[in-house]
């Protein structure tokens, strides 16, 4: 699935725009952004949190970031109003 999305040019900026558009159309359901840590790290942790919050995302599922290794990211999440 990820490879197909990449082949179609989907990137982080586009996904955040999809969330913004859905919220503007009235989506009330929680939106969780799910993916791998490396693209998030490349985008920038704080930038991602700021942009995701602005877009209307409710949280993250980072599939390859174990909780015991996620202290910095979890602290950033708390500072942007995301809770565990």
TrEMBL record:
Catalytic activity reads: (1S,2R)-1-C-(indol-3-yl)glycerol 3-phosphate + L-serine = D-glyceraldehyde 3-phosphate + L-tryptophan + H2O
Q: What is this protein called?
A: tryptophan synthase
**Which superkingdom is the protein from?**
Eukaryota
Provide the E.C. number(s) assigned to this enzyme. Answer: 4.2.1.20
Give the matching Pfam families.
Trp_syntA
Q: What does the record give as its pathway?
A: Amino-acid biosynthesis; L-tryptophan biosynthesis; L-tryptophan from chorismate: step 5/5
* InterPro entries in the record: Aldolase_TIM (IPR013785), RibuloseP-bd_barrel (IPR011060), Trp_synthase_suA (IPR002028)
Source species of the chain: Paraconiothyrium brasiliense
Q: Does the keyword Cell membrane apply?
A: no
Q: What sort of enzyme, by top EC class, is this?
A: lyase
């Amino acid at each position: 699935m990820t490879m197909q999305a990449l082949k179609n040019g989907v990137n982080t900026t586009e996904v955040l725009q999809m969330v913004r558009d859905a919220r503007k159309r009235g989506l009330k359901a929680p939106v969780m952004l799910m993916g791998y840590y490396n693209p998030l790290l490349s985008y920038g942790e704080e930038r991602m949190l700021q942009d995701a919050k602005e877009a209307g995302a409710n949280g993250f599922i980072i599939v390859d970031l174990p909780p015991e290794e996620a202290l910095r990211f979890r602290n950033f999440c708390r500072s942007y109003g995301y809770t565990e």
